[in-house]
Structure formats: structure tokens, C-alpha cells
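hey so i finally got around to running the thing on that chain from the lab meeting. sorry it took forever, my laptop kept dying and i had to restart like 3 times. anyway pasting the input first so we r on the same page abt which one it is
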Amino acid sequence: MRDFSLDIYRALLETLLAKGYRLISYAEYLKGQRDNVQGTKYVILRHDVDLKPQNSLRTAQIEHSLGAKATYYFRVGKESNEPQVIKAIAQLGHEIGYHYEDMSLCNGDVDKAYDHFTTWLAYFRQYYAVETICMHGAPTSKWDGKDLWKKYDYKKLDIIGEPYLDTDFSDVFYLTDTGRCWDGYKVSVRDKIPRYQDEWTTKGLVWHTTPQLLKAIEEGKLPDHVMMTTHPQRWTNQTGEWWKERMMQNAKNIIKRIIVKNK
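ok and heres what got predicted. didnt touch it at all, straight out
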């Protein structure tokens, strides 16, 4: 199977299920942790819908067919924000969240960014009772979206969590397909967990391709508690789209390397 195809994505989920992992949303993780009922193996399925929302609907349908729950974070721009797709994914039983980038959109004006955030949170709550939010990395922006919460408190807006701020990464291993690979933290500006990454690397918890990850799961090398972040724009069975995404991501990775090197 071709890497970053929908076929191998299904195989990845099926392998996790066969090895006894529960596939849950981020809100389910937070509520389970709070109620002290998480004693099992689980993978939190998180999707950042940066582009091509129709691709997200396809992964959501695969997950639904397997009885899995996932969280889909949508941006405000038209490249992500497609109401019919949001509704369809919610109807499949998945969680919808806000993939916020208000600091970048408001040029670092914290008060303006907060007003922008609350406006768009209300917008997404037309389609789903949003309980969790997640920063959009925006690698070319000088603004870190999480800085908004140095002044304001999202929990006063009935938000129960933000993955980068409310996940116990001392217990939950983080996997992300940023950079169109599973070890893309090396070229990531913000989609990484610096405090624990060296520890995970030392333990050998590093895989580049999905076949390598599948082998690790089959051999029992994946930790029991995982957050797995994917960007569904990258996962497709369409040959032309697959090659286009691959070439575009290779170019983006070059830019990211320069940004990371100069930080």
C-alpha cells in the first residue's frame, strides 16, 4: 500500500484496534481522565483540517465504519471551513473543535484576537457544542497562537481543553504526520512537544513512514497511551493529488528547516 493513502490509513486504524487500543476523541480523553476511568490502551485521534475539508470527510467515514471516534479541528478560512463537511462529520459522531490562529490573523493584538476568537467559537458552535480547541501552528507567522491564553482563560468559555496545554505528555506519547512523515518534529516550528521529545527519541520511539509505524504497533512497541495527529489533506487514494501533496510538502519542509534553524 502507498504511504499516506486512505488504504494505509484504514490499515493503521485496524491494526491499532486489533492490538487492543481504543480510538477516542480528545474530549473523551479529557473526560475520562477527569472521571478516572481510563485504565486501557487508547489512541486519541486528532485531525487538523488545514486544507481540503473533503479529505477529512473521507477519513471520518473510515473511522465511523470501524467504530472509532476522532476530533476534527477546523480553521476559519474557506480552505478549511466548509459547513456541509462540518455537519457531515459531526453527524458521524465525531467531535468538532476550533483550530484557532487568532493571534496571527490579528497581528498579535491580544484583545482583538480574543474578540475574534469568541466570534468564531460562536460560529462553530452553530454546528457542534465545541468543547475543545487547538492552536494552528502557522509556521510562517511570528505569533504563537497559545500566547492568547497568557491574558485570557478559555475555560471561562466552557472549553475543557487544548491539546498542547491540557494533555499529560508524561503519560501520553505524541505522534504527528507534520512534514508528511511521522518524525517531522525535526522540521516543525510548533507542532511538537519539546520537553518530552528527547526522552521519546532516546527510547527509540521514532518512525519515519507509516509501514514502519505499523510494524512497531504489531511488535508491541507503541506506548499504551497515544495522541495521533494527522492532517487529512495528505491522505488520499487519488494518484495525481497524492503526488501534488508530496511535492508541495517537500517544498514546505525546506522552508520549515530554514525557519527552525534561524530560531
